[in-house]
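Researcher: Please translate sequence to structure tokens.
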Amino acid sequence: MKLLQFIKNQQTKLGVKTARGILDVAEAAKGFRERQPEKMHDLVLQGKDGIRSLKRFVEKIVNESGESTYFLDEDDIQYRPAIEQPGKIICVGLNYVDHANESKMDLPTSPILFSKFNNALAAHKEPIPIPEVTEKCDYEAELVLVIGQIAKNVSEEEALSYVFGYTIGNDLSARDLQFKTGQWLLGKSLDRFAPIGPYIVTEDEIDCNNLVIECKVNGETRQHNNTKNMIFNCAQIISYASKHMTLNPGDIIFTGTPDGVILGYPAERQKWLQANDKIEVSIEHIGTLTNVLV
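Model: Translation complete:
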């Protein structure tokens, strides 16, 4: 399933992308007198049983219901971040060989983990303000994992079974702030510098180790790679992180960006992002996350 969150009557609601449009899960559940989760985090907490139940419900509504008011035109909805208020936003740095090389940094021997905060979350189509404190704003197209079960000391072999689903992220980075000190946090956690979405695709429908990932700026392709070229794959990242901290349902992990970021250009070619730039991050089988800087 392709899941999303949107705003309706000033409330965040869970939706499912279908051939008939975006299914308003709560509205349909009310009409059919069934209990279904109202928000993404509620579904994450229900785990695989919740996914199976919702999938059966969606199939019934799509195939049997003649009621069209349960479905919304996707062009008319206002998106919310694919998941809100995660307990942790974990990011992996330098996770593609070519990106490490273009950044002129040594290849890591273990995953480089850092974090963002919830203030950085933003939605598909949400405008992203460039703060006055930075002059070097950069994009980073990334596959994002959504954790679905408590994970502590899990093996690589078991790790992917702890995933709820996969979404798209743009790890926007203020490079002048990122390298102002030895800690990257300042350049990573500016307001709305972690847009995610538009969808979460449930883990049963995605091979996370073979997905084309791409970033375009104003229609020009800047990044094009495949998740099979990660230095540390998704299972290794989850296993490694879980040995150092407990991962909880709803936690998200940005898995690293491929080469092609502005930071990797020769100095004379570095044209940093500016207002009105349109950034599109696409991942095979998931969709396209679009944001415009303001």
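Researcher: Any highlights?
Model: DSSP finds seven helices and 19 strands in the chain.
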